[in-house]
Every structure is written in structure tokens, then in C-alpha cells.
């Protein structure tokens, strides 16, 4: 099959979870003999082919609400000139999807929208967009992929008569990264002497909840644990880049100056991230806005107990994670788990079994591949 994936960022700085999700799907589809192209933002110096995936970059940014700027005509021409079997957009209210919406009726390929949460639902500035642009466009799509049966993006589609197009394909974590030991031990690398380690993995956006986690960590009131805060310090662009840096990263940095048991690590260093997952005792997640957080599935794969705010689809996994409402409750749950090795191990083993069965990238790529094949068969019939 010839497959085009359209996503805002791909192999780009600060792209976050959606970027990783699309990379894993694209590379998985290539291993099944498909010809995969990714249309995305331009990055200077990035190779045009990575791991068998062809990458075409465009100097475009924005969305239909705030305006789309740059070489948008070039991107639209590219979409119309392609001879694909399937075109997949990742996310709404982003230029890669919004420009495709404008010419969707001229694209002969099967069209699929994968919606990582629709983060602007409920934002009054985007109400008109969802009513006038989003809904009319996706009625012409052949499938709508959601990561959860219960999250708001699917509920929104179902409530607007689109339930018959819904497909559930979850998020996941990599077998090759998480099965087997890390390349080094995080304790030795960082000279950590405390008996326990807690980690949180999230780039330095304010909404990622680092303040929540730091507050909970302080409320533990114990000296036998170190907190590793792992993420890229610079995210987004322009004014937002510096806003997040000042409001989030500098707060975390300041906290680390006042406590030697709070350590900041660069999220770009993947070997370090994996070593942290495999050497930690707890994962603390304080995010305010998610869909199906990849770090949750990575904690499952690492056999690492996951303690989180009620965000995104975490309730789908409530039987083997801990969901909390406040830093105080996160501290109380963390203390209980730290003092109960058997409970930690039981949680992590159940979560690991769930990951191995349903949330490896191999299985997820298979699910996308099967979906695309079904759509093409329907087209031929």
C-alpha cells in the first residue's frame, strides 16, 4: 500500500508524544512492505528518508482559527498530486489536517483521521472551528481512529452521528526499548545513593504538571528517595517557547537548587530516559492535559508503578494504576507503595501483562495495517 501520514512534527525538536506515536506507526507499516510518506513541518538538516519512511517537509505553521502561514499552496498541491491508497491525518486544529480538510473531497485515497484527544474541545475560541470546519470535513472520512472508547474526542464524534466510523487503536510502548536491561544503571550514572527513585517524564510545558509532582514529592517528607524530572527544556516556538521555559523549566530548576534530591535530566537523551524507567521505583505524573499518555504505557513496559492525576484516558487502566486528585493524595499513595514492595510488584506485573498483550507498537502497527487493508477492500468492492 502507498500510505501518506500528515502530522505537524516528525523527527523534530519538542514534538512530544504524537510525534513518537506517528514515528512508531510509520516505521511499523514500512516493515510490513508498505510505501510510507510523512508530510510534516520542515526541519533543516533532517534526512529525507529515515528508517524506510520518506519525509517531506513544508514551511507552514498555524491552524484555521489563528490563521495558516507559509507555503500552504505547496502543501495543498502536494496532497492533490499524490497517488496514495490511504491518507491519515493526526490531530485536528493543526495546519496539516486543516489544509487537507479544504481539499478532502478531491482526494481519491481512503481518508483516516487519528484524533489524539482534540485538546481544544471546550475552548470557546474553537467552537466555530469544530462546528463549521471539523465536523463537515470528517463526515467525508472513511474512518476515525481514537485511542480510547471513553475519551472526549470519541464522545464528541459519537454525539454528532459519527459512531459508525469509529475505530479504537490504543497507544503503546516499544518492545525493543523495554524488554531487556538498560545500557547502564541510572544509580551509578548519576551517583544516586537514596534507596528509592521516583521519576516523571514530560517536556517542560506548564500543563505537564511538574509543580504538582514537586509539591507531592516535598509532601512525602522522607529523605530516602530522589526525584528525576526528565524532559526537554525548550518546547514550542516564539513567545510560547520562552513562556514555557520561564514558567515551567525555571521553576523545576529552582527546585533542584534547593534540594539535592531533585535532579533534572534532558529528555533528548533516550538511553538516559530508558535507564531511569528501568531503575526507578515509582512514576509520578501530574499532567493537566493528555489524551492517552505514552509515558503511562512506557511505565507499564518498564514494570514501574504509575501514580497520576485524572487526565486523558487513565481511567481505562484504573485497575493497575493509582489515580489521585491532589499532591497530598499523591504523596500518601506514594508513601504507601514505597512501604509495600508486594503491592508495587503486583501493580507493575498486571500492567506489564496488559502492555505485552495490547500495547506494543508491533500490535498497534498491525491494527493500522489491518484497518487500511479493510478500507481498500471496501473501495474495490
Detailed description of the structure:
The chain is globular. The chain folds into 2 domains: 2-172 and 360-380, Rossmann fold (3-Layer(aba) Sandwich); 175-358, Rossmann fold. It is built from 14 helices and 16 strands. With 381 residues, it is an alpha/beta fold. Strand 1 (2-6), helix 1 (16-31) and strand 2 form a beta-alpha-beta unit. Helix 8 crosses helix 12 (327-338). One of its GO terms (molecular function) is glycosyltransferase activity. InterPro entries: Glyco_trans_1.
Question: What distinguishing features does this structure have?
Answer:
381 residues, alpha/beta, Rossmann fold, 2 domains, 8-stranded mixed β-sheet, 6-stranded parallel β-sheet, 16 strands, 43% helix, globular
Q: How do the helices and strands line up, and which of them pair or pack?
A:
Layout: E1 2-6, H1 16-31, E2 35-41, E3 49-50, E4 53-58, E5 60-63, E6 67-70, H2 72-81, E7 86-90, H3 95-103, E8 110-114, H4 127-138, E9 143-146, H5 152-159, E10 166-168, H6 175-178, H7 186-190, E11 196-201, H8 210-219, E12 225-231, H9 238-258, E13 262-266, H10 270-279, E14 282-285, H11 294-301, E15 306-309, E16 322-324, H12 327-338, H13 341-358, H14 361-380
Parallel strand pairs: 1-2, 1-7, 2-4, 7-8, 8-9, 9-10, 11-12, 11-14, 12-13, 14-15, 15-16
Antiparallel strand pairs: 3-4, 5-6
Short description:
The chain has 381 residues and is of the alpha/beta class. Helices cover 43% and strands 19% of the residues.
Helix content: 40-55%
Which term fits the overall shape?
A: globular
Q: Over all CA atoms, what is the radius of gyration?
A: 21 Å
Rounded mean pLDDT score: 93
The CATH superfamily of the largest domain is Glycogen Phosphorylase B
CATH topology of the largest domain: Rossmann fold
Structural class of the helices, strands and pairings? alpha/beta
Low-pLDDT windows of residues: none
Distance between the ends:
17 Å
Strand content: 15-25%
- Could you spell the SSE succession in H and E letters? EHEEEEEHEHEHEHEHHEHEHEHEHEEHHH
Amino acid at each position: 500500500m502507498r500510505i501518506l501520514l500528515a502530522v505537524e512534527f516528525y523527527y523534530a525538536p519538542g514534538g512530544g508524544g504524537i510525534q513518537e506515536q506517528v514515528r512508531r506507526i510509520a516505521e511499523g507499516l514500512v516493515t510490513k512492505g508498505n510505501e510510507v510518506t510523512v508530510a510534516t513541518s520542515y526541519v533543516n538538516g533532517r534526512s529525507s528518508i529515515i528508517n524506510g519512511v520518506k519525509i517531506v517537509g513544508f514551511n507552514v505553521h498555524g491552524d484555521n482559527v489563528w490563521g495558516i502561514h507559509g507555503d500552504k499552496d505547496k502543501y495543498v498541491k502536494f496532497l492533490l498530486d499524490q497517488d496514495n491508497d490511504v491518507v491519515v491525518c493526526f490531530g485536528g486544529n493543526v495546519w496539516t489536517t486543516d489544509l487537507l480538510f479544504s481539499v478532502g473531497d478531491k482526494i481519491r485515497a481512503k481518508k483516516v483521521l487519528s484524533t489524539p484527544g482534540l485538546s481544544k474541545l471546550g475552548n470557546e475560541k474553537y467552537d466555530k472551528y469544530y462546528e463549521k470546519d471539523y465536523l463537515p470535513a470528517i463526515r467525508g472520512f472513511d474512518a476515525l481512529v481514537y485511542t480510547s472508547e471513553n475519551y472526549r474526542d470519541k464522545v464528541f464524534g459519537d454525539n454528532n452521528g459519527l459512531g459508525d466510523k469509529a475505530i479504537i487503536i490504543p497507544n503503546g510502548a516499544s518492545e525493543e526499548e523495554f524488554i531487556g536491561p538498560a545500557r547502564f544503571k541510572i544509580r551509578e550514572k548519576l551517583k544516586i545513593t537514596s534507596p528509592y527513585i521516583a521519576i516523571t517524564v514530560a517536556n517542560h510545558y506548564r500543563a505537564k504538571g511538574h509543580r504538582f509532582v514537586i509539591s507531592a514529592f516535598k509532601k512525602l517528607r522522607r529523605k530516602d528517595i530522589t526525584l528525576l524530572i526528565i524532559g526537554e527544556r525548550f518546547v514550542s516556538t516564539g513567545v510560547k517557547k520562552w513562556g514555557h521555559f520561564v514558567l515551567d523549566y525555571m521553576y523545576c530548576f529552582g527546585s533542584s537548587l534547593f534540594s539535592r534530591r531533585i535532579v533534572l535530566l534532558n529528555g533528548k537523551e533516550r538511553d538516559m530516559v530508558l535507564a531511569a524507567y528501568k531503575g526507578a521505583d515509582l512514576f509520578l505524573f501530574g499532567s493537566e492535559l493528555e489524551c492517552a499518555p505514552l509515558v503511562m504505557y512506557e511505565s507499564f513496559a518498564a514494570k514501574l508503578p504509575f501514580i497520576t492525576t485524572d487526565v486523558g484516558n487513565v481511567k481505562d487502566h484504573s485497575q493497575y494504576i493509582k489515580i489521585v486528585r491532589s499532591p497530598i493524595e499523591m504523596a500518601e499513595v506514594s508513601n504507601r507503595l514505597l512501604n509495600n514492595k508486594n503491592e508495587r510488584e503486583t501493580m507493575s506485573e498486571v500492567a506489564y501483562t496488559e502492555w505485552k498483550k495490547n500495547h506494543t507498537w508491533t500490535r498497534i502497527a498491525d491494527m493500522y495495517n489491518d484497518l487500511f487493508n479493510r478500507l481498500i477492500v471496501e473501495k474495490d468492492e
